[in-house]
Each structure stands twice: as C-alpha cells, then as structure tokens.
Amino acid sequence: MKYFARLREQLGPQELRPFVPGQSLGQLRDALIAQGGAHAQALDRSQFLRCALNQQMAEESALLADGDEVAFFPPVTGG
C-alpha cells in the first residue's frame, strides 16, 4: 500500500500488508481503521479519501487480487 500527502506524513510512504483476495478496497480500509492508532485516525470514515488500484483510480467497491498495489490519498494532492 502507498500513502500520499498528509497520509504519508501520518503513516509513512508505504507498507507491505497482506489482504484477502476478493476483499474490496472499502473492506481493506475498514480493516486498517479497526487496527486503531495512526491508521484509525488517518483513514477515518469522516474523511473523504481517494483510492487507486494498480495505479488506476478505483471506487471502494473494487475487489482486490493477489499482488495488487493499493494507494490512498486525499482528494487534492499537490505535486
């Protein structure tokens, strides 16, 4: 997983984390939030976040497959 903008500041640039193939991006986000701590604060549902799956914008309903790259970022990310 990769994080951008303020999420990078809170969680670091990336992390390797196993997920369940067939799980949706939204379910992955909820699992990360359930961990508590920095993940719960950074990915909280009160904040609108964008998702990308394999470098393509994706909805939270998109399903994950083994080896996928996931990214989370705020809606406005500077270069």
UniProtKB/TrEMBL annotation:
The keyword Nucleotide-binding applies. InterPro entries: Beta-grasp_dom_sf, MOCS2A, Mopterin_synth/thiamin_S_b, ThiS/MoaD-like. The keyword Nucleotide-binding applies. One of its GO terms (cellular component) is molybdopterin adenylyltransferase complex. One of its GO terms (biological process) is Mo-molybdopterin cofactor biosynthetic process. Gene3D superfamilies: 3.10.20.30. Keywords: Nucleotide-binding. SUPFAM superfamilies: MoaD/ThiS (SSF54285). GO terms for molecular function: nucleotide binding. PANTHER family: MOLYBDOPTERIN SYNTHASE SULFUR CARRIER SUBUNIT. Belongs to the MoaD family. This is Molybdopterin synthase sulfur carrier subunit.
